[in-house]
Specification:
Elements lengths: L2 H24 L6 H22 L3 H13 L1 H26 L3 H21 L7 H21 L4 H19 L4 H25 L9 H25 L4 H7 L2 H12 L7 H34 L1
Helix pairs in contact: 1-9, 1-11, 2-4, 2-8, 2-9, 4-7, 4-8, 5-6, 5-7, 5-10, 5-11, 6-12
Membrane topology: Multi-pass membrane protein
InterPro entries: EamA_dom, EmrE-like, RarD
Family: Belongs to the EamA transporter family.
Length: 302
């Protein structure tokens, strides 16, 4: 299997996981969103340390930290990535806990458009005619949802922008995905630990409320880091525009979860938007497969 195909598989798996995570967060909705965010960050770091030990990359990790101290621009980029993804986690968490899964899914629908635009504008990625049409179709679908909400969907836009720029930073940074994610979580983990310590001193920490709550909060590290690790692997070999289109898997699953499990209202606007967005996905996929077929054909002829 080629590196690009592996990257696509990693991307699909990560988006499937992200699409189903609202179910997990609903299980601990009695915990404050701020504490869940801090717990996610802290246990994600612990999870990544475990991954490094299992993969026997601990010495490489220490060497990587030393290298970062000699490359402040790379260190700054990883810190920016950690801030962006932490903000994205916090916004999404707040939306799920407060019964706004559909609005969060709108943000995830806008994210691929952000990724595609960033890829075209900043990375000079090119779209062919069919891909351009698919982008416009997806844009119409998102516009329908935006119009349906009756104003600027700030929560949705915040989700889209934070993850869109996170994807851009991860695309540009040339580091091992495991090392990079370990540094990202490590750079923000001290702040999470300080906040959790503050809650404990104030006797407001809900981590020890029950065994199930403790286990679920500890498990949030794996639930958070695993799809992110798969995504960072895919970002190295898959174009930002392709990642943008595949990303529609996640909000679609989240929207279905919100409608069928948690009884949020699915309006006519959502159905219309679905038609446009999935038509865009089908068209973009057809275009990509067709282009690969042509390249293989001409490569064999030469």
């Amino acid at each position: 299997m080629s590196s690009e195909k592996k990257g696509i598989v990693y991307a699909v798996l990560s988006y499937l996981m992200w699409g189903l995570t609202p179910i997990y967060w609903k299980l601990i909705q009695h915990v404050s969103s701020a504490e869940i965010l801090a717990q996610r960050i802290f246990w994600s770091f612990i999870f990544m340390l475990g991954i490094l030990l299992i993969m026997k990359k601990w010495s490489m990790f220490l060497a990587f930290i030393k290298e970062l101290l000699e490359k402040p621009r790379l260190l700054l980029s990883l810190c920016i990535a950690s801030i962006l993804i932490s903000a994205n986690w916090g916004i999404f968490m707040w939306a799920v806990i407060h019964g706004r899964i559909l609005e969060a899914s709108l943000g995830q629908y806008i994210t691929p458009l952000t990724s595609i635009l960033l890829g075209v504008i900043l990375l000079k990625e090119r779209l062919n005619k069919l891909q351009t049409i698919s982008f416009l179709l997806a844009g119409i679908g998102v516009f329908i949802l935006t119009f349906h909400y009756g104003g600027v969907p700030w929560l949705s836009l915040s989700l889209a922008l934070t993850f869109g720029f996170y994807g851009l930073v991860k695309k540009v940074i040339k580091t091992d995905s495991t090392m990079g994610l370990a540094i990202e979580t490590m750079s923000i983990a001290p702040f999470a630990f300080l906040y959790l310590s503050h809650l404990m001193v104030q006797t407001q920490l809900q981590f020890t409320e029950s065994i199930s709550t403790s286990l679920l909060l500890m498990g949030s590290g794996a639930v958070t880091a695993l799809p992110l690790l798969l995504f960072t692997k895919s970002a190295k070999t898959v174009s930002l525009s392709m990642l943008g289109i595949l990303q529609y898997i996640s909000p679609t699953l989240s929207l279905l979860v919100g409608v069928f499990l948690y009884r949020e209202t699915l309006s006519t606007a959502h159905i219309m938007a679905f038609i446009f967005i999935w038509s865009a996905l089908a068209l973009y996929t057809f275009s990509s497969v067709s282009n690969r077929g042509k390249k293989l054909y001409f490569a064999n002829k030469t």
